[in-house]
Amino acid sequence: MTLEKPGVYYLNESVFINDSAIHITHSDIILDGHGNIVTGNMSSGSIGITIQHPEMMMHNITIRNITIRDFETGILIDTSHEINLEKADLISHMRTGIRIETSENIQITRCTVQNNRNEITGGYGIQISDSNKIKITNSQVTGNGKTGKSNSGGIYITNSSETSIISSQISTNPGFGIRADNGTEHLKISDCDISVNSGDGILIQSGSSPDIQKSILDKNKESGIELIKVVQPVITGNVITSGTMGISLLDTEDMTLTGNSLKNNRIGFDISASDIRYYNHHISNTNTIDSRTLIYLKDVRDRKIGPSMNPSMVIIVNSSDIALSELVLSKNCAGIILANSSNLTLTDISFIENGIGIRSEFGTNNLICNNLHAERNLVSGYYISNTNNFTLTSIYGQESPSGIYLHNATGGILKNIYMTQITGLKSRMPSGITLSGCDSITVSKSQFSECSYAGLVSDSDNLNLTDNRFLSNTYAGSVILSGPVDLYNNSFLNNEDTGLILRANQSTILRNTFTNNKNRGILLISGNENLFAYNTFKNYKNCMIQDKNAINIWNTSNMYFSDNTYPAGNYWGDPEGEGFSDICTTDPNGCCIDPYIIQLYNIDYHPLSSQYIIESTMNTDLNQNGREDLQDVVKYMNMVSSGDTSSLYDFSGDGKINLNDVVSLFHIIIKK
């Protein structure tokens, strides 16, 4: 059927069509369906109603009171303007319910677009491309797209401007609710219900100036609103609930965010930026996440944020002299984000079930963190990137894929860190602390245990590890793949594979303990001019060197016994007390007479025997009164009894802190 003359046309009965049904090839036409149904047979390329002329732009056409179903496309509007669709139902088409191309001034009012889908591409409810001034009002767009087809869904807009979606329901689409791509500008969404879609409620990519206001976005499986590389969005007065993410931003700039309520989302607010300008926004304190304020500080000086403010999340940009204390931050991409800010103090803060607990980046410096707790965060408890001169003390983390992640950070001091049960896919190397591209980092008096990969992983230079414990990790105590590094007085205990894996040159490994590691105490992948001295090895296999040409020093001329005649070596025992140092013939100074040969260029010429106790590796003056006596034993026992064991030395060498260590400390002190 072709309508090729102006006038009013009526459909007096429902019809079944084997191919395309109605072609409108002239302007100034009204088609009234009188509530009848035009049904196709799902044939490829079929269209229920086509508004198109190959040689001219169509205009002033109205289609109303009609149901179109079971075509490839329900209605195609091409190269046309001033087209009105009123009370049209577009149901069960294979490709799309309504397709608008290269057109403008199109009104879609009180229409239902439902269950348009296919198995291959997924399909769309309404598809708009290269068009301007499309307005969708009081319409329902439901059940469109196909589960598992991420590019299918309710309304799909590309390279179009001034599209408005007003007072409409876009819900239960197996794909996204609304998606706008490729330069779409001035999209307005207002007073809509966008809910229970299997993808994002609203997804906008590479667009500008969208305005999303006064809408409800509930139970969308992914994000309520996701913006990727969008400029100048305005998001005002929306209620976004029960999704995976409430609002998610990636490389989006100059956003206005006001009066939005985000509730019961797995992650309330998510923001990621590849450049500092993507943190440049206008975010008021009227936005809430689970009824708590989202605090955004930009270009601010001298501010304190404490429990009376009770924020849900804090973002600090280009600011200085900010203090945060006594907060509990949960269910956001990060509890705290610090970008290009300085002189920051964070104290007594808990991060629970965020993506990341704290994220510091873009040149933040002079950061002090004390007594922080991170638990069950999806990615990492603490992510410190491109940050200089920072101090982390009394930091706790567990049940995350990464405990602390340091990236391109310099001048860091970490002390009294406790990371445990850091779990995840082994291929992602879940570790207590990871250092990537860092320089001049010191970690001391800390414990890293029960991590699915390692207690520590590092490819960084000038790392100093002192008085730490790496125990019961699934793969290794530490994996260090660059140097030089300095390791003093650390314990590598009960790790499932290796105590220490090392690839470094000119490093110092001094006074460390390697005990009960299942496969080996230390694996030296490669490295030269490393110094190993005063270390205690008690493993069934103590040392393996992969590089047969490696040349290292296993004793030092800088440290002597009491008579200053012999350089110190290492203790080479095993868990059964039958290792080389356990049974060797000794000289009067407590050294084994025979050298311990690891391989050709790696020989310990003065290995220690069981007669020599490396007491200096242990701090036994616990009360710091300048004496080592029974008062120190009492203090140690009280700390064990109270459960405060994170900073305690394993005097018994069994990988645990318990009363056995009290007894061992007692015996050490009475021998002095």
Please count the beta strands (DSSP E, at least 2 residues each): 67
Number of helices: 3
User: Mind describing the biggest β-sheet?
Assistant: 34 strands, mixed
Oligomer: single chain
Q: How far is the N terminus from the C terminus?
A: 108 Å
Strand content: over 45%
**Low-confidence segments:** 558-565
Task: Report on this structure.
There is one protein chain. This protein is mainly beta. The chain has three helices and 67 strands. It has a 34-stranded mixed β-sheet that branches. The chain is elongated and about 115 Å long. The termini are far apart. Residues 558-565 have low confidence and may be disordered.
What descriptors fit this protein?
34-stranded mixed beta sheet; 4% helix; elongated; 17-stranded parallel beta sheet; 3 helices; 67 strands; mainly beta; 672 residues
The gist of it:
This protein is mainly beta and 672 residues long. The protein has 3 helices and 67 strands.
How are the SSEs ordered, and which strands pair?
Layout: E1 2-3, E2 7-10, E3 15-16, E4 22-24, E5 29-32, E6 37-39, E7 47-51, E8 58-69, E9 73-78, E10 80-91, E11 96-101, E12 104-109, E13 112-114, E14 124-129, E15 132-137, E16 140-142, E17 153-158, E18 164-166, E19 169-171, E20 176-181, E21 188-190, E22 193-195, E23 202-205, E24 211-213, E25 216-218, E26 223-228, E27 234-236, E28 239-241, E29 245-250, E30 256-258, E31 261-263, E32 267-272, E33 282-283, E34 288-289, E35 292-298, E36 301-305, E37 313-317, E38 320-330, E39 334-339, E40 342-352, E41 356-361, E42 365-375, E43 380-385, E44 388-398, E45 404-407, E46 410-420, E47 431-436, E48 439-444, E49 447-449, E50 454-458, E51 461-466, E52 469-471, E53 476-480, E54 485-488, E55 491-493, E56 498-503, E57 508-510, E58 513-515, E59 520-526, E60 531-533, E61 536-538, E62 543-545, E63 556-560, E64 567-568, E65 571-573, H1 580-583, E66 596-599, E67 602-604, H2 630-642, H3 659-670
Parallel strand pairs: 1-4, 2-5, 3-6, 4-7, 5-8, 6-8, 7-9, 8-10, 9-11, 10-12, 10-13, 11-14, 12-15, 13-16, 14-17, 15-18, 16-19, 17-20, 18-21, 19-22, 20-23, 21-24, 22-25, 23-26, 24-27, 25-28, 26-29, 27-30, 28-31, 29-32, 30-33, 31-34, 35-37, 36-38, 37-39, 38-40, 39-41, 40-42, 41-43, 42-44, ...
Antiparallel strand pairs: 34-35, 63-64, 66-67
Helix pairs in contact: 2-3
